[in-house]
Amino acid sequence: MRPRMGALLSIGRFAKLTGLSVRALRFYDASGLLRPSVVDPETGYRYYRFLQLTQAQTIRTLRELDVPLDDIARVLERADLRPVLEGHVRTLRDEHARLGERLARTEGLLRDAAALHAGGVGLRTEPGTHTVTRRVHTALERAEGDRARTAARLFEDAVELNLTVTGAVRLAWLPECRFDPENYEVALHLPVTTPCPDAARAGWLEGTRVAHTTHTGAYADLHRAYSDVDAWLEGQGLAQCGPAQEVYLRAPWDDVPPTDWLTELLVPVGAVGD
Prior knowledge:
2 domains; 24% strand; alpha+beta; Multidrug-efflux Transporter 1 Regulator Bmrr, Chain A; single chain; Multidrug-efflux Transporter Regulator, Chain: A, Domain 2; elongated; 3-stranded antiparallel beta sheet
């Protein structure tokens, strides 16, 4: 005997009411997440009850948030929704941090491509940006290791503080510090979209007009980029008017050899006498 269908919804009608596709409903049936109330033994047609609308809408909402099917099953089994969502928030934050790092590296490569295409030294306006920052006391003989360790901490800070990374790690020379190769202090910055909530690690890099060039290779030869910019500024009748920045587009923490390290040098400029 065929079941009575009067109080049931066909799969097509159920799909329209829930916003789930017929294909999705068939998948949820096969996976055991949402089985139809009745399956016609003669036709194989699936039918659902009105009471299942709430379950279907819960599935749709959570799947739109990319909550895994196993976690949705726990919710449907009367589990507390809060720990499921808290776990998913942690997962999304981790993914957000990884995507932010990839975006920063991609934007750095894009900026590098534009600089290499232009060639030599150029001028541009560098926008201001919020950063998470750390200062480090170092010396030339250990600067590379100190720089890599501090960069790693900055990425950890961004994850801890739920900040979205928007650019590559950069070093900013401090205006109040004199350079002593045996002992000097610099600030490393990681650009982010919003102000850092921890005042001790919050930074801001002012927007300004800069002369820029790129250097490929080990940091021991980075002085050549500084010399190139100095010579270009003199030829243009311009002068450095603030501390330089080094933007690490490809760096040791990217697992590339020193020959492939790529650094952009930014030097704030103004007219001579400014």
